[in-house]
Each structure stands twice: as C-alpha cells, then as structure tokens.
C-alpha cells in the first residue's frame, strides 16, 4: 500500500465512503456530514466550527446535493477559515453502487488518486519546504481581473467562466465568486493570465 500523504488542514466530506477514499491516500482529519443530516445536528455543527478554527477544506460532490451542503457550510464557518475545493464533473458510478447517482456523476468516493492529488495539492505538506499553500506570496486574482477578462459583466461571461473552470478541472456552472475563490486556492494570477490569453 502506498504511503499516505500529509495534508495541512482537516477535510469535510459528505459520507463514510468519501472519508474512506480520502483516508486511503491522505493523512489528515476527515469529518463526515452524513449528507443532509448536518442541517439538523447542532452537535455536528459545533464540532465543525471547533475543528475549523485553524482552517478547514470543504470537499463535497459536484452535484446539486453537494452544492446545497457546501452552501450551508459556508454559512456556519467563518469565511476566512473555509477552503472550498471542487472535484471535476466525471460521468460514471461508484463500484459499490448498482446504478449511477441522480445526475450520473462520480462523487468524492469515485475519484482516482490522480484527481484527488490535483485537487488537494495546494495543501500537501512538503517535508523539505513546509506546507504548500496558496498563501505563498503569489499575486491573487481579483474581481477586476474577472471584469477585464469578460468573466463577469459581459454577454457570454458564464460560458467563458465554464471554459476557464474546465481548464482547471473545476465543475461548470460556478458563480463568479465561487470560481474566483477556487482559482485563488489552486493557482495564481500569472498562471490564470496565461490561460485566459491562450485559451479564452
């Protein structure tokens, strides 16, 4: 079995199979929500707030339910403590299931090692140089960049955002704010500008 890779922050996932997938590859604390069960569990919400005090990664599925759960978590965790990461939208079904999900997409549990490595790479602890993180002094992408690059405020802004999201392995249909936040976690302004100029 391959050695597990250390992650600098705890991770929130939807269910126990998602947790098993993450823990099979990464050494970190993983909190399961029990799907929509977190909405009515004051105990679980209190635990999440406590664990999130030093920062926490939210890694829900890219389907409609995952978006609803992510939105709820963004309402109970301080904005400066939450890191929203996104798995790509990949059609298929998990091996343990008899049929695909409602939207026919793989969830966190269905992600392969390569996909999860890419998604969680900004938070992998490197034994030589310390924590790899977007907080490394790199220049951030701003809302002004999005406006100037016609990712907001233009007739085809949503389509352009979807193209940009696709390049970085993010799901389509993201709001401008959600995409901006995700890009500032996984890349920097220099790389963003290269992609915008060459691909959009």
**Helix- and strand-based class?**
alpha/beta
Shape: globular
- Give the number of helices: 8
CATH class annotation of the largest domain? Alpha Beta
Low-confidence stretches: none
Give the number of DSSP strands.
8
Order of helices and strands: EEHEEHEHEHEEHHHH
Residue share in helices? Answer: 40-55%
Give the amount of beta strand, in percent.
5-15%
Overall pLDDT, averaged? 88
Main sheet, how many strands, which sense, barrel?
4 strands, parallel
Radius of gyration: 17 Å
Kindly report the CATH topology of the largest domain: Dna Topoisomerase Vi A Subunit, Chain: A, domain 2
What's the N-to-C terminus distance? 41 Å
How many domains, in number, for the residues? 2
CATH architecture of the largest domain: 3-Layer(aba) Sandwich
With strands numbered from the N-terminus, the spatial order across the biggest sheet is 4-2-5-6
Q: How does this model look, in words?
A:
This protein is of the alpha/beta class. The protein folds into 2 domains: 5-131, Dna Topoisomerase Vi A Subunit, Chain: A, domain 2; 143-195, no CATH class. It has helices spanning 16-25, 42-51, 64-76, 113-120, 143-148, 157-167, 176-186, 189-199; strands at residues 5-6, 11-13, 26-27, 30-32, 56-58, 82-84, 125-126, 130-131. The longest helix has 13 residues, at 64-76. It is globular.
């Amino acid at each position: 079995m391959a050695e597990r890779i250390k992650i600098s922050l705890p991770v929130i996932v939807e269910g126990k199979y998602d947790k098993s997938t993450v823990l099979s590859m990464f050494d970190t604390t993983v909190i399961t929500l029990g799907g929509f069960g977190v909405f009515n569990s004051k105990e679980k919400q209190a635990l999440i707030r406590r664990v999130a005090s030093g920062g926490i990664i939210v890694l829900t599925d890219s389907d409609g339910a995952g978006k609803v759960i992510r939105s709820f978590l963004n309402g109970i965790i301080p904005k400066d403590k939450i890191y929203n990461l996104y798995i790509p939208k990949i059609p298929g079904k998990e091996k343990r299931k008899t049929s695909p999900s409602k939207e026919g997409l793989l969830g966190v549990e269905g992600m392969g090692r390569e996909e999860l490595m890419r998604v969680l790479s900004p938070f992998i602890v490197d034994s030589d140089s310390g924590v790899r993180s977007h907080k490394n002094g790199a220049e951030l992408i701003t809302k002004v960049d999005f406006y100037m690059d016609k990712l907001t405020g233009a007739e085809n802004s949503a389509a352009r955002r979807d193209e940009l999201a696709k390049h970085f392995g993010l799901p389509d249909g993201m709001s401008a704010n959600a995409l901006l936040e995700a890009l500032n976690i996984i890349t920097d302004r220099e790389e963003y500008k290269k992609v915008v100029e060459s691909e959009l």
